[in-house]
Amino acid sequence: xxxxxxxxxxxxxxxxxxxxxxxxxYRQPTKIKVIRYNQQKIEEEExxxxxxxFRHVVKDGYxxxxxxxxxxxxxxxxxxxxxxxLHPIDCKAVFTPYHAAKIDDLNHRVIIIMRxxxxxxxxxxxxxxxxxxxxxxxxxxxKEKDNRLFSPIEDSIRNDTMQIRSAGRIMLVAFVxxxxxxxxxxxxxxxxxxxxxxxxxxxxxxxxKINIGKRIQQCRHANLILQKNTVPLHSEFRNIAxxxxxxxxxxxxxxxxxxxxxxxxxxxxxxNSRELxxxxxxxxxxxxELRTNxxxxxxxxVATLFIPITFLVGLWGMNFxxxxxLDLEYGYPAALIVIFxxxxxxxAYMRRNNxx
Length: 356
Hints:
- The protein has 356 residues and is an alpha+beta fold.
- The chain is built from nine helices and seven strands.
- It has helices spanning 3-11, 74-83, 88-95, 151-159, 169-203, 212-241, 244-247, 250-316, 331-352; strands at residues 31-37, 42-47, 63-69, 102-104, 109-119, 125-135, 138-143.
């Protein structure tokens, strides 16, 4: 497929349509898991993706958490979203991996679109598309990769942490947000630690400066992803923190205030990292310039030292038949002595004038 075709395919998920497709990088098979819980009971079930009507997995008297992992099966996911009475535009938001962060309509139909951040083994930051849809007594979460991101929430449900099993679906939404925010905070702390190590290396003259520029660029890329994923979410979070369902419950209000503070921390951290990166780039450029100047100075000194010696060698190296020096018995050792004295004199002159 040509480049124009690739661009057209990737641009299609921005258009309105009756059928949306997933164009993200993670083509993992779709898995669906349901956790139902109330104050007395917990039920866990793997759901067959070929199920025609997913409304049957939702039971009254429970908070029903439907986890969808992998977005490759567009038909199944679309059937699930529309089957729960959600809007077709919600399909577009779920399938769009680079959708702008948004939080809409907490009191009735919840839709939250965001991206998580995490560091891999290669110290490269990875970003994952996360979507949360909720209505009535169910919460549906979508994520691109088959990982253990939401495992702590499952443990919290089993252990009834903060009485989550009797707090309703909005508390579950809060736990999901907290899990994603915690991962983003870990990424922000990791960027700060990397910058601190780089700062020590830049200030230590004994350390090798090899690959420092590459590491600075790596930190800059990670910080840009953090800013891109959190700044829009921070502005949208006011919708959820100031909604009636949150402000009417003291516990929920405290939890969402804490979540808002977590976003504040990440944004402040990313701003500080951006300023530190700017100063590091200037320091690195200045360090490279000073190192280049020092190398050029040494090369210039060596070249200056050999200029008179080169002149003498060139003078005595001419192939004229009648040269009086050629007949001298001790001409060769005398020439070596003159060359040595000339070099020594040139070195002493430069040293006296503080050239090095």
